[in-house]
Structures are given as structure tokens and as C-alpha cells.
Amino acid sequence: MVMTLLLASSGIIANAAIDIYGLFREPAHRSLPIYGDERLAKYLLSTHYVQANFDGALLGTSVSANWDTGRMQTLRLYNESLDGGNLVEESAILDQLLLHPTLKAVVLVVHPYITASHDFRTVPLSPREVWGALGSKNLLDAYKSLIKIGLGREPQLFDAAGSETYGEGTKTLNEHLRFMMRPGAEFEIDPIALSAYRDVVAKLHANRIPIAFVIPPTSGPIFASKRAELEHYAATILALRLPDDPVLDFNSDEFEPLRRDLGQFSDGVHLRDSAAARLTALIDDHMRVWIAAGWLNHK
Amino acid sequence: MLFQSFTFLLLFLPIVALGNAALRHYARPRAAQVWLLAASLVFYAFPRPAHLPLLLGSIGFNWAIARLMVAQADPGRRKALLWIGLGANLALLASFKYLRFFLGSVLALPNWDFPLGISFFTLTQVMYLVDCYQELCAPISLLDHASVVAFFPYVSSGPLVRAKAIADQLQSPKLELAARGLYLFAIGLVKKVVFADSFATVANAGFGAVRELSCVEAWVFSLAYTFQIYFDFSGYSDMAVGLAWMLGFDIPQNFNKPYVSRSISEFWQRWHISLSSFITNYLYTPILRSFRKATLRTSAIATVLAMAIAGLWHGPGWTFIVFGLMHGSALAVNQAWKKSKRRLAPGMGWLLTFLLVNSAFVVFRSPTLSHALTLLGSLIPHGDLFGTAVLGSVIPIAPATIFRPETIGVVLAFFFASSAELAETFRPTPRNAMATAVLLVVSLFFMNSTVARQFVYFAF
Predict the structure, then answer these.
(1) In this structure, are B157 and B208 located in the same domain?
(2) Quick one: pLDDT band at residue B185, thresholds 50, 70, 90?
(3) CB B367, CB B319: distance < 8 Å
């Protein structure tokens, strides 16, 4: 029993000292990229690390996962977007963020994918995962990923602000999005995910954290065939906002040139990294205007 | 409370074991016995306190019946009391387990919660009543009877232990078994949390999609369950036996490498040994005796009947009855084959046994017979032979798969020493202490990675 305790405690101490999720040591001024499971990492990093190093967070899906939010000038946002993510998962992440509600603002992405399902895709994100950071299979996977990246055998896909690298290549739109974006069909809204969206907005308002809604751009041909459905969907979600919550709609006429340029998109829905950087700069510009108009004081 | 929970491992077990050792050392044995009984009742009541009166009532009733029966000089009345006792136990079991199955379609019956360990503590007391009736053991005090029946290492899922075997040790437990017990417990814990849970993930995916499986997948998923239930239940049994040893009580092993068996009768001498012993002594033998003459035919009938009852004991469902009938029929054929003195080619006995066991577990695991037939049908090569769509969703089809717990588990089940053999050769050396520590730490690591699941046998 003594040996067991010694072995177990040495493992726990080592993992707490390495602390890849910023849970056990002072997280301020640390730079912690994502290793292992993206969802779990973002969930755990949102316990202390995000609050200690960022002004706010962006909640979204793969559509916004490569937005370069860490470089924004007005407010540095941590990109909590998840590949194939939904609002139930994002809501769990928000619950972690609200354990220490010091964020100045949160940006919510308005895209039909985020309310299309409500499952936890990999790990059920629950507070017990914090214990897993002291020693678990997920932590082992994260270490494996860290070593492979360190040895150059695996690319570092995520930066310390949670943003993912998609690259500049062309891809085929994935099966789910292709189905979702088929012409003539309304977007299916999962009632549990919609309820989670409502809860997220309510929780942020209750914690007096300003919200902005961003509708990501959809490339010209897809937008043309789904315009009515996209607008109907946006109206459904934006009905949850308060009048003071600003909205930035990249599907509006103002951004028509961006949508028309298919070279900005890797697959018609996701932006290439260079385009994502430009889009992030545009969000940054709008934030500056909102802040000047007193957005951060709308509590 | 699950053995593989942090509450049990880090709180309950250390407190109980240290308290037991201290009371054995500094106080009278009776104090330690009371301590263990109290701990057992806390263990039992922890998940569902409302079920504790049922256990206590069953203990009190069986203790009283045994006393009355033994005090009765008239053989007829003795027998009547035995039948009252057996009838009451079966009625208790039936009311929670079988009433809805048999009468649910006719009567509007309440859906009662299934009390933890009811199948096991009922059978333990059936054995006690029969043993008292046959004068194989003398009736014991209420405290002893309660201590024996409610003993937390086996109250929830066995092994089935004869009352006399434990009662004789109550005043003089062997605390020198503690180190060996911890070692065996650690082996059982690894079997459960590392291997059984890994196999469970694979098996669940396959049994949840039986209509989509290729032939290869059907084999992989059926084998995954066959190994899951082995590691799950033998791991649980190792933990139970290990816990009893840690507290100074010597109870027999329940598994001994069942999948190397070369005949179905050998399988049942290696699989759930305490249940096999119960079936032989308390079902098969009385049924056989009820015939006027013991012949190969009557023996076959008794075997099939006893195994069908044993199948039904596992749960109220046709799949369990068919599971019992499959094993009973195979045992009957095996008896006839032995009698004919014919021999099988080397390896053929093992292959036939393993195929039967695997097929029977497909039925056992399936929610319905048609579900089982679909999967069994997929085991026969036809249509899609090599598809891996479902399998690929749970196991990466890559060379690294050989390092997964599932692959290692298969090798261990066939080629490694059994827990019984390992425990037998155990010596309290620094090397073995380190091995135990590593096993426990690996288990804690896996426990911290997955949500604790119920044991397969807790449902029975």
C-alpha cells in the first residue's frame, strides 16, 4: 500500500508540475497550446488559463475554429470553437469559464451547425475531467501528442489562443455540411441545442458579460441557394439577444464581395487561414466601434 | 458501492481493513466480527438504503427457519419447514425477478427496483437451509449468520460460499492472507477496469448494430463480449476473494482459465466454480434423484433442466433460458460422448467448446432472441465478409492495435497464468509488493479515465 501511495503520488505530482491545462500552477503569462483531445483541452484550459490570459472568448464550430482571435487588438479572445461542435458542448465550456467570470466579453457564432445536434462527441465534458488531468488515458494521449509535435512527427494544429490551422488548400465540403447546405431544405434545429443556446445567452447576461453575435460568411453559390433558410435561422437565434447586443452579419450585403470571392473559402463554408485572419481583423474593427459606443458597459 | 470506485478504494476499504486489523489485535474477535458486519451493512445500504430491510429480513427469516428445522424431531415437520424456507426464498427471488416476466402481460404489476445481490444472498441461504436439513452443518447464531450472509466482499455478486466455510473462520481469521489478498485484489481490479471495460466499449458498439455487421465484425464483436464477461466477472471474483483474504477469510477461487477448456464439462469446472458447484449439488443431484433410476437419459434430462434453471437464474428473459439450454444440451452430449469412449482430434475439443461458449454468450448478451439470431447468422460466412465500418468506429484498424488492452487481454486469457495460480505462488517480497503497487496505480489511472460502470453480474 505504501508503494502504491508513493507511485501514485509521484505520478500525480509530476502531472501537476507539468500542468498542460493550467489547472494547478499560476496560469497567467503561460502559453498553452492544445494537445490531445481538442474538446477536453479547451474545457480544461477554460478553468483558469483562458480567464488569466484573455479578455474574452469566441464560442463556435469548425466554421470559426481557425479565426485568429488571439491576435485581435481590441479584445484578445480565446477561440473555444470546436470541430463539429454544438452549443451543448460550448455551454459546458462556458460553465468552466464562469467558474471565474472575469471575461470582458463573449462572441457567439450564429451558424446552423452549432444547433444541429447536442451530443458530446468525444468526452462528456464534466468537472470530473479536472481529476483526469492528474493522471488518465486522456492525459496520456495529450502527452503522446505533445511528444510527437515536439519531435516534428505531428503538426501543431492549435495555437495558445485555441485557434486551429486549416491551411490554404481546397477541400471538399464534409458530408454533414453538404447535407445541411443542400438547396431548398430548412435547417434542422435540435431543440436541446437551441435550449442550450438560450441558456448560454441567459447565463452570460446574468453574469453581466457583454455578448456579440457574429454570422460567418457563406460562399456565394451556397449562400444564393440557402439565403432564405440562413436568414430565417439567423432570425431565430438573434431573437435570443437583447437590444444592446451587437450583431456582425457577414452574410449581409456589406460583405457580398468577400462571399463572392470563392478563393477565400477552402470548401465554400470554411475560410482559408489567410481569409480567416482578414475576417478576424474585420471583427476587431467592429469591436473597436462597439466598444467606443459603450458595448463593454452594457451590463 | 462499486469495488472499482474511489470511495471504496480510498475511503471504505482502508477504514474497514485497518479497523478489522486493530480490533483483531487489540480487542476480542467478536468485536472485529461486529465491525465487519456493520461495514457490510453500510456497503450494502450505500447505493440504496431502502433495500437494507430486505436483506435483514431475509437473514432473520432464514436463521429462524433453520433453528426451528433443526430443533424439530419429526422428519415430516423438518421437511415441511425446509420447503417453507425454500419456498419463501424462491418467492422472494421471483417477486423481484420473475413475476413481471411471467405475469406482466396478464397482471398490472409494480416495477420494483432490483435489490443488489438478491440472487446471491438468496442462494447462499438456500444452501444454508439445505445443509442444515441434511445435517451437514449445525445452525449458527444470528450474529454469525448475518456476518456470513452479508459479508461485503461477496454479498453483491458472489462467489457463492457455504455458510459453514465462513462461520468456522469467524473467530480465527488468517490475517497472514492479507498481502496475498491485496495482490489478488489488484489483479482483479486491473482485469475489470483495464480489460473488461475496454472489451465492453467494443462489444457495445457491435451489439448495438447487429444488422450492419460483416462476418469478420460479427466474430470480433461476439468474441469481444466473450472476453468482456470473462474479465469482468473473473476480475470481480478476484477482487471479492482478495478482499476476503485481506480481512483474513479464506474463500475459494471462482475462475481458473475457463477458455482453455477442452470440453464443456471442463469449462464449467473452471467458470464461475461456485455456481457450478451449486448447480451440481443443489439442482442437478436432487433432480436426478427424483428419477427412479440414474441412466444416461435421465442424467441428460437432469443436466438440461438444471442448466435451464441456472440460465433463468441469471435473469428473466428467454435469452437466459436459451443460454442455459445451450449449455445443458452441450453438457448432455458431452456426457454421452464420454460414455462412448470415442476421442476427438487434438484441439478439436477446445475449438468446439470455445465456439459453443462464444455462441451461447451471444445469446446471453442479446436483448432478444431475434437480435441474437441476427448476430449468430452473421457469424456464418455470407454476404459482406470483411467490412470494417462498425469496427473501425471503435478500434483503429492499424498495426498499433496489437498494443491495445483488447489484444493483450486475449493473450492473457489464453496463455498467461490464472489469478488462482498467481495467488498460489505469491510470496510477500519487495518485487511482488512493487508489482501490486504498479497494478493498483495502473487501475487508478484507468479508473480516473472512464466513468465507473456497473459490473455485468450486478444485474443478476
Answers:
(1) no
(2) very high
(3) yes
pLDDT tens digit string along B428-448? 898 998 999 999 999 999 988
**What Cα–Cα distance (Å) separates residue B348 from each residue in B120, B261, B344, B377, B393?**
35, 11, 6, 22, 34
Q: Give the pLDDT confidence of A184-228 residue by residue, as tens digits.
A: 888 999 999 999 999 999 999 999 999 999 999 999 889 999 999
Nearest to B192 by CA among B149, B255, B148, B269: B255
Please report, as a single letter, which amino acid is at residue B406: E
**Closest chain B residue to the Cα of A6, Cα to Cα:** B437
Length of chain B counted residue by residue: 460
Answer yes or no: do B160 and B196 share one domain.
Answer: no
From B152, B173, B194, give the residue that closes a domain. B173
Residue A146 in contact with residue A139, Cβ under 8 Å?
Answer: no
The pLDDT value given to residue B453: 43
Measured between CA atoms, how close is B448 to chain A, in angstroms? 6
Which structural domain, as residue segments, surrounds residue B163? 6-173
Report the SS3 class of residue A59.
strand
Query: Does A127 reach chain B within 8 Å, measured CB to CB?
Result: no
CB within 8 Å: A132 and B433: no
| Domain identity same for B168 and B185 | no
Residues B137, B223, single domain; the answer is no
CA angle (B12, B13, B15) in 5-degree steps: 70
Domain count, chain B: 2
Do B102 and B56 share a structural domain?
yes
Asked if the bond preceding A27 is cis, omega within 30° of 0, the reply is: no
Classify B368 as helix, strand or coil. Answer: coil
CB A42 within 8 A of CB A96: no
ipTM over cut 0.85: no
